[in-house]
Design goal:
The structure is a single chain. By secondary structure, the chain is of the alpha+beta class. It has one domain. It contains 4 helices and 4 strands; from the N terminus they run ααααββββ. It is elongated, with a radius of gyration of 18 Å. The termini are far apart.
């Protein structure tokens, strides 16, 4: 019983220390946007190479905008990020679980 308590305490401390903040979410959003741009241009050959710097800049901008329209609910061991564009308030917001410096898209249907 004592060992279980110690393990739970260590696990809680690790989760607390690795709870991602808004900067981590910004980096995640930028990486996902860049990944999507690369995926869309992969078959375009040299054209994709020409637009690579543009794609990287667009991804950074997208990451910054992502945090602008994102609300973070901090539960200390993990966070829930809710992304909602103000231009489309009728659309269901997109939610992400942030835990251990990772992000997981939640069922958004």
């Amino acid at each position: 019983m004592k060992t279980t308590g110690i393990i739970m305490l260590i696990l809680a401390a690790v989760l607390f220390a690795t709870n991602p903040d808004k900067d981590d979410f910004k980096e995640y959003m930028a990486a996902k946007i860049k990944e999507e741009i690369v995926k869309e241009t992969r078959d375009k050959g040299e054209v994709a190479g020409i637009f690579k710097p543009f794609a990287e800049g667009l991804a950074e901008l997208g990451g910054a905008l992502g945090t602008t329209f994102t609300e973070r609910d901090n539960y200390y061991l993990f966070s829930i990020y809710t992304f909602q564009l103000p231009s489309n308030p009728d659309e269901k917001p997109v939610k992400f679980l942030g835990i251990a410096k990772q992000f997981i898209a939640l069922d958004n249907e």
